[in-house]
From TrEMBL:
Protein name, per record: Kinase
Statement: the UniProt record of this protein carries the keyword Kinase: yes
Organism: Lithospermum erythrorhizon (Purple gromwell)
One GO BP annotation of this record: coenzyme A biosynthetic process
Molecular function (Gene Ontology), one example: pantothenate kinase activity
Any Pfam family: ARMT1-like_dom
InterPro entries in alphabetical order: ARMT-1-like_metal-bd_sf, ARMT1-like_metal-bd, At2g17340, At2g17340_3_helix_bundle, Type_II_PanK
């Protein structure tokens, strides 16, 4: 379903939007902080975004869909750097004080203002093609695990392995440009349990009781993340009778998969009979979330998604941006899962974990 019209709150949120819901997980400042002086946390995150500029500029320079891309890329780097420096002098400039939603939004605005729409399009297409070629093998390996609990654990490990493909992280962007990434190698290198937040046993215990009628999954990155991580997991839910709504961004942002890209990916994964490696897809729905950032504020989603999600009994926020940096502490009327890999040292420090640690935060709503 395509997005149209005014954005609305996600009806699954438990708390009133106007009083209790706050998208951003990490508090950059408190009411007692001087409004005219940046806090240490703000300065730390401003530096994180400053550090990401070279990788964004490099991607923009190579965007052959834009004329004079190198000059425009330099203009982006200068404008966005100036905005971040302004925040250091005056936290209330540019609509501040800054938080992760505002800093991401300003970066996307500057990219679009100088003429870029999707600077990661080429690498997304390449990684999608590569991942699609591996999908059948990943599913086959999963199906070979007869014990349902162990199979689900393996699928969850696959979500974490796929989620490593994130070019919004300066460290991972550098690693990817040098060596690329192997999904199977990533599976083997997942940080061992217990993770910094680890409720997987509770989730699998509930899963074995087959309770969920409908799940809404806010998805993250292109390539291995959606195709080799989320889609095998989605297929398992479908196989056990759960309706699944996959919510994807309306507009491009970093290497996040968009609604239109997801439509194309799923069409390529289906066989001639419309099956997903032997599993019916009549209960699979694709929704445009109305979002255009790598993070998400659930007080503003598309009306179409709100309608599809209204009767769900499980919501999944996948990825660091949607499930950790925003919405980690969001409360829902139904069961919820926040799942993602920690890719910024600042997030690891806040959580008391390690870089590339895993977050698996499951909350069951008792009937």
């Amino acid at each position: 379903m395509e997005s149209s019209g005014e954005l609305v709150p996600l009806p699954l949120l438990k708390t009133p939007i106007d009083t209790n819901y706050r998208a951003c997980t990490i508090p950059y400042r408190f009411p007692s902080d001087n409004p005219n002086k940046p806090t240490p946390t703000e300065l730390s995150w401003l530096q994180l975004f400053i550090n990401s500029i070279p990788s964004f500029r490099e991607r923009a320079e190579s965007d052959d869909s834009v004329s004079d891309a190198p000059a425009r890329a330099e203009k982006f780097a200068q404008r966005y750097s100036a905005i971040l420096e302004d925040f250091k002098k005056d936290p209330e400039s540019h609509g501040g004080p800054p938080d992760c939603v505002l800093l991401c939004r300003l970066r996307e605005q500057v990219l679009r203002e100088v003429g870029f729409r999707d600077i990661f399009k080429k690498v997304k297409d390449e990684e999608n093609t590569k991942a699609i070629s591996l999908f059948a093998d990943v599913v086959h390996l999963s199906d070979a695990i007869e014990d349902e609990a162990k199979r689900m654990e393996n699928l969850i490990q696959g979500i974490f392995a796929g989620n490593i493909f994130d070019l919004g992280s300066a460290q991972l962007a550098e690693l990817f440009s040098k060596d690329g990434m192997s999904f199977l190698a990533s599976c083997q290198n997942i940080v061992p349990r217990p993770w910094v937040i680890d409720d997987m046993d509770s989730f699998i215990s509930k899963w074995e009781r087959k309770p969920w009628k409908k799940a809404v999954i806010f998805i993250d990155n292109s390539g291995a993340d959606i195709i080799l991580g989320i889609m095998p997991f989605t297929r398992e839910l479908l196989r056990h009778g759960t309706q699944v709504v996959l919510a994807a961004n309306e507009l491009p942002s970093i290497n996040d998969v968009t609604y239109l890209e997801l439509v194309d990916i799923i069409a390529k994964l289906k066989d001639a009979d419309g099956m997903l490696a032997g599993v019916e897809t009549t209960n699979l729905f694709i929704a445009n979330s109305g979002n255009d950032l790598p993070v998400i504020d659930l007080s503003s989603v598309s009306q179409e998604l709100a309608y599809l999600a209204s009767d769900a009994d499980l919501v999944i926020m996948e990825g660091m941006g949607r499930g950790i940096e925003t919405n980690l502490y969001a409360q829902f009327k139904c069961d919820s899962l926040k799942i993602g890999m920690v890719k910024h040292p600042e997030v690891a420090q806040f959580l008391g974990g390690r870089l590339y640690d895993c977050v698996f935060k499951y909350n069951e709503v008792k009937a």
